[in-house]
Write a structure and sequence with these properties.
- Helix 1 runs antiparallel to helix 3 (about 110-120) and helix 4 (about 125-155) runs antiparallel to helix 6.
- The protein has a three-stranded antiparallel sheet with strand order 1-2-3.
- The chain contains eight helices and three strands.
- The chain has helices spanning about 5-25, 30-45, 110-120, 125-155, 160-170, 170-200, 200-205, 220-230, and strands at about 50-60, 70-85, 95-100.
- It is elongated.
- By secondary structure, the chain is of the alpha+beta class.
């Protein structure tokens, strides 16, 4: 029994996608490093008035007790140029506002794309080439989401950050839109669109209608054959 190309692809995707997600999570720190570097380059060079530094690795702190929960090598710490009151009650104590982000929230597009590519019938060099192109594109998408979240944390979650945004002339509506776009739209959309763009011949094969089952017999030839056989 022959298996249709669509069914063969779906079976391969069921096997490859969990494995791709496993590898992505197991090596999350190396996968997050390029994203953090891209975000750092953008934040410090495009918006130097808002950000002082971006550091690979960050501590997870319990907001209620202030105790250290864990150190995550795949997180990033953002040191902003915004001064805020670090003490809620009592005498004010001013400091630069620092916060931690998890870039991997935006990174599930990488194993999603890799799993689709591995399930596609391709030559080895084609798989490596597509995954290489996909990594670069998806790291940029992931970095966009990270940068948008830094603006969201600074401008929408901190009063002093909101004032700083207004002082510099930044629109909070654009910040909110960019955050939603980078969080909800780009991570699932870009890997699927990129896979379709790079594998158009295979997509056309999957969507091609099946050939006609059989050609109708030539009745005139059949009648002539029977007459000759008498």
């Amino acid at each position: 029994m022959t298996i249709s190309p669509l069914r063969r692809f779906m079976l391969a995707a069921v096997l490859w996608l969990p494995f791709a997600f496993f590898l992505w999570f197991a090596f999350r720190a190396p996968f997050a490093w390029p994203v953090i570097q891209i975000a750092k380059l953008a934040l410090l060079h495009v918006w130097p008035g808002l950000y002082l530094d971006v550091i690979v690795g960050a501590d997870e702190i319990n907001q209620a007790t202030g105790q250290l929960i864990a150190h995550h090598s795949d997180w990033m710490q953002v040191n902003s140029n915004v001064i805020y009151n670090a003490v809620k009650d009592g005498a004010p104590k001013y400091a630069f506002f620092d916060f931690a982000l998890n870039p991997m929230i935006y990174g599930y597009s990488v194993p999603l794309f890799a799993g689709l590519v591995m399930a596609t019938p391709l030559e080895k060099w084609q798989r490596f080439a597509q995954i290489g192109v996909g990594l670069v594109a998806l790291w940029l998408v992931q970095a966009f989401g990270v940068v948008a979240e830094t603006f969201k944390v600074l401008g929408l979650q901190l009063a002093e950050g909101t004032a700083k945004m207004h002082e510099l002339g930044y629109s909070l509506e654009v910040v909110a839109l960019a955050y939603q776009f980078g969080y909800l739209i780009l991570p699932p959309l870009v890997p699927a669109a990129l896979w379709i763009l790079l594998n158009r011949p295979f997509i056309e094969e999957l969507t091609r209608p099946p050939a006609a089952a059989a050609v109708e017999p030539n009745h005139e030839t059949a009648v002539e054959t029977r007459q000759q056989g008498k």
